[in-house]
Amino acid sequence: MTAIVIGAFIAAVIYGIFATTSYAGRVASQSRFKQPLYMDIMRYTTPSIIGHNFIVCFCLVAIAYIQYAILGYPFSIPFLALIWGISVGAIGSSVGDVHYGGEREFQNREFGCGLNTALSGRIVRRAESGLRNSIDNVWFCAKFGGPATGIGLGLTVFFSSWPTTIWGYTWKAMVVGVIILAVMTIMNRLVEIQVKNAYGPYKEDKEEKEAVSVAHTH
Amino acid sequence: MVFLDPTTIIDILLIGLSGTLICLAVHFIPVGGAPAAMAQATGIGTGTVELAAGSGLVGLITSSYMYAYEPSASVALVMAAGAMGSAIMLASTMLAGGFIYAYGVAVPFASAQVKKDPITGERQDIYVSKGTQGQGIPTICFVSGVVGAALGGAGGGLIYFVLMGYYSPLITTHAAAVAGVFTMGVFYVNSVIPSYGVGGTIEGVHDPKFKRVVPKDVFTSAVVSMLCGIVAILIAGGMTA
Fold it and tell me: What residues of chain A, 116 to 145, have a C-beta less than 8 Å from chain B?
């Protein structure tokens, strides 16, 4: 158990270096957009990123340890931790990263719409109220994207082993898995209905559809 | 010659078949790449390889556990366990990703490839915002992704089952490790092939691209996977307990 803590600590320190250099490097390399480099990010957001990394490393290795030593999985701890690491990378890239991709720090994106291809690279610095800068975006990503990734991984870890733990290694457990999948599909559908009603159809786009389709077929 | 043994040839063919299954599965998964991460295209905002390998490897964990605890488990049950683990991983990812698209990025889910969702029958084109190729994960993409991940997990379970059957008599205790690492390798090989085929983004079964690229990719994958199968048999040559 001590080894897991020490390992996770070393990983968190290395991740802290990555988080610092990536933030400073991003602002410095895009200096033509004149986004300032805030010490507040270094002081308040980077430590929370490092903290998240410590929790992730600790939990992943702990899961691998439990699966190997207590549940008796056939793979060794490093291999299990590698698989869960790749898995959390995939989830983090597709869940936590999404808001960062759709971020409004450099992108001129209207609320409630996707990023217009024609507006890609058109840089904005003023938000609806005040400056549009890295404090809000990075803060939001670190404190909302990280936990959302955790929800994705938690659902995966829990529901991928729960049916076989309760119903044994039978077809019944597989049926329960299918039911879980059906419930998740319905939940996604409910979210879809809600956001479609919230942001509404872009009716005014219908007239301009010809122009857009012409632009895409050139 | 060891290659002329009928069971060996069947093993190689089965590995080829399961590799092809994984390759086919990747086409079902709605990957949008970087454009999807910017809410500029429909699908999950990450790369094909990352997503296919991530979901398939969770399937590998569940199928290997099934194999370890039920030595008498049929090949169908091991494949089903892999399919379940893999599909649950992808469904969780799409659900959590959908929450971010809905409440973080604030975009309605819409597909730009079809006018109406084939499952819900809802209009899609009027929800696609200006200058984008759709956003988020609509129901058809979600269902297609779940089916794809299940196919991929089943393919991974089949490779693991075949390799365990081949390696277990040779190296009893370490067979799981070798079979696991080899299955992981086959996963990576077969998720790179489709990512070239689809060119980074695909929405799922309803995408016109699906019909266009699947035959080519499946043929390539069958050849490459059978090569993997031959290598898997070759490395068993020096194995001693």
Answer: 116-120, 140, 144-145
